[in-house]
Amino acid sequence: MFSIGIRYCGGCNPQIDRSRIIRNLKNGLKKIGLSVNFNADKKRDVDILLLINGCMHACLEEEYRREGNNPPFISVKGEMVNDHYIEEKSIPEFLINKIMDLLNSSSK
Amino acid sequence: MMNGKEYIDSLRNLNLEIYFFGQKIKSIVDEPMFQPHIHTAAMTYELAHDPEYEQIMTASSHLTGERINRFTHIHHSIDDLVKKVRMMRLLGQKTGTCFQRCVGLDGLNAVYVTTYDIDQKHGTNYHERFKNYLLEVQKNDLMPSGAMTDARGDRSLRPSKQQHPDAYLHIKERLKDGIIVSGMKAHITGAINSHEIITMPTRTMGEEDKDFALSFAIPADAKGVTYIFSRQTNDTRRLDGVLDGGNPKYGIVGGEAIIVFKDVFVPWERVFMAGEYDFTNELVETFAGYHRSNYGGCKVGLADVVIGGSNWIAEAHGINGASHIIDKLTEMIAMAETCWSCTLACSYEGHQTPSGAYHIHPLLANVTKLNITRMVYEWMRLAQDVAGGKIITLPSEKDLENPETMEILTECFAGKEGFPPMDIIKMLRLIENMSVGAGLPEAMHGAGSPAAQKIMIARRSGVDRKMDLAKIISGISKDTYFEDIIGKDEDAHWNEVKKKIKEKKVQLY
After folding, report:
1. Which of A16, B165, B184, B197 has most Cβ atoms within 10 angstroms of its Cβ?
2. Cα nearest neighbour of B356 on chain A
3. At CB < 8 Å, which residues of chain B contact A?
4. Which of left, alpha, beta for B275 (phi over 0: left; psi -120 to 50: alpha)?
């Protein structure tokens, strides 16, 4: 099963509701019948990482950039995902599309 | 990179049409009225060559890898953002006034960030054009002025509805090889001693204002461009001598001008926005964010000078040990460092934009500037308080030079032994210049008036989340962490507590 590792920033002053985004993402994936294994255990191997930064400063991202893109990561940073500005309410949907793209490309 | 003298010499090559005092000015470089502003801008060039300051005054171009003046650099890291405000404080310390060049720097960065985003959405090629322009700026170490604020006419009407169409800079005609523009930009700092002009829209535009959604760069002496230089407090004292000017080397404020564009041709390769009204808000907010963050650097540099001056005057008057003087000076320092903390914070909390350039934290940048609109007045008020009434009653330097009055005035202004009266007068004039003059409203309105900062602060404050926090703490919403800590449902916990109290099963009652 496709696995996603979730990593959260420290959450000092988030501009988005990080747990709601994950909740809506999980529900959205469930709705379209996509089975994805989410885990927050840093020791387990995963297919991709989902970095959930509360703001655009993206404390987490620097750490994972240093480690290279292995495994690849999607970075949510406030109302921005990777290098796209996305409104908070649209972030789960954007992530679902990203995950679908990754799944499609890995199955080719 | 040019040094200070080379910068001044480079201005001689410009053929600008400037008016001031009802006259057309032949050469700003040779006129005492304009020289202080030129000297200040020259400091931004000069310090880049001093090994003691090159770490913050220069940067490595992300386009060429070459060493460039930081005033032409696109910020590509948090470190760049921090060094930018360190550079602002340093230059404030070295000049005691506005050194003008940050407006162009912020314009370069804001247009860089926004053109990338416009291209992503509209498939235009503004960003490539802008990078080519940037290369030119970096290679020749140019100083562009940043021209944002339009004349604006009737503020209640949109740009396209104004009685005078030139109240806002706009496209008059679109040609195959470029555009024809007309309009006015007001309060443009450093305009008459810049090599280039970068224009940006002054406000968010709607579809009906398409022709006003405009950004471009032109040489400062482009055909059809005219400057009308603005007055400042005590400006003609520069023509009375040296001492009365207060800060005769570097002046009072940056030197602002109205720029009039009359049917100016701009080739397409120098146009960076032409109708993309949906990006005017981004460009304005990005520029404003960068620029507002600067004020916690430059004005704190000025505060360093005025705090030093106030302390020196207190020593010269023999009152430096008085507790109320120590208290006032400490208050000034605390306020200045508060603003410095704000600007460092908005730099350290910056972020990478899709273009790869870094932007400051917008909420904190607006808080920085809002503090500046208040605290500069407050620390300058304290400077006036410490300096004493003499700062507004000093005699003219002509009386100090007149043999008939010189001796008595020297006696009158004598202070503690070791402080020559003439030095005391010089310092009082500096404090007068800095604390009474145009620098105060500049701190208020430069980079936008307080209301503009409050709009941005309100918009970005995330007050809904703050309400959620309060609802959880007050007990209106569920506090899952609290329930985990106590190991049970919150209602059950309080029922138990109430029961214990009722049954007097508590020790303290």
Report:
1. B197
2. A83
3. 117, 349-354, 361, 462, 465
4. left
How high does pLDDT run on average in chain B? 96
Amino acid identity at B212:
F
What are the structural domain ranges in chain A?
2-107
Our separate counts of H helices and E strands in chain B read 17, 14
Residue owning tokens 């989340």: B465
Token couple for B14: 């410009």
Mutation target vs B (from A66, A83, A88; most B CBs, 10 A cutoff): A83
Backbone angles phi, psi at B170, to 5 degrees: -150, 165
CA pseudo-torsion sign B21, B142, B147, B340: negative
Closest chain A residue by Cα to residue B358: A57
Q: Do B57 and B48 contact (CB within 8 A), yes or no?
A: yes
Residue in chain A nearest B361 by alpha carbon = A57
CB B18 within 8 A of CB B257: yes
Residues in chain B: 509
Q: Among B46, B196, B256, B276, which one carries the catalytic annotation? A: B256
Tell me: domain B285-460, CATH 1.10.1200.10, correct?
no
B256 is catalytic: yes
Collect all residues with Cβ–Cβ distance below 8 Å to B230 and sequence separation of at least 6: B187, B255, B256, B257, B258
Query: Does the annotation count B346 as an active-site position?
Result: no
A58:B349 CB<8 A = no
Q: Where are the domains of chain B?
A: 285-460, 463-502
Q: Which residues pair with B171 in a beta bridge?
A: B181
Phi, psi of A24 (to 5 degrees): -70, -30
Contact call for B351 and A77, based on CB within 8 A: yes
pLDDT digits (tens, 9 = 90+) for B163-175: 998 999 999 999 9
pLDDT, average across residues A8-19: 94
- Could you tell me if B366 and B292 are in contact, meaning their C-beta atoms sit under 8 angstroms apart? yes
Q: At what angle do helices B323-348 and B280-316 cross, to 10 degrees?
A: 160
Joined tokens for residue B354: 């899709």
Q: Which residue numbers of A have CB closer than 8 Å to B's CBs?
A: 14-15, 17, 55-58, 77, 80, 83-85
Rounded Cα–Cα distance for residues B298 and B296 (Å): 6
Which band of pLDDT confidence, cut at 50, 70 and 90, is reported for residue B483? very high
Question: Which of chain B's residues have a Cβ under 8 Å away from the Cβ of A15?
Answer: 462, 465
CATH topology of domain A2-107: Rossmann fold (3.40.50)
The answer to whether B140 and B227 have CB atoms below 8 angstroms apart is: no
What's the one-letter identity of residue B485? I
Active site residue B298: yes
Cross-chain Cβ contact A14/B465 below 8 Å: yes
The tens digit of pLDDT for each residue in B331-342 reads 999 999 999 999
Alpha carbons B223 and B221: distance in angstroms, whole number: 6
Residue B388 to residue B376: CA distance in whole angstroms: 18
ipTM for the whole predicted complex goes beyond 0.90 = no
DSSP symbol at B166:
G
The predicted-structure confidence for A46-101, as pLDDT tens digits, reads as follows 999 999 999 999 999 888 887 776 788 999 999 999 999 999 999 999 999 999 98
Looking at the partner chain, which of A55, A58, A83 has a beta carbon nearest the beta carbon of B354? A83
How close does chain B come to A1, measured CA to CA in Å? 31
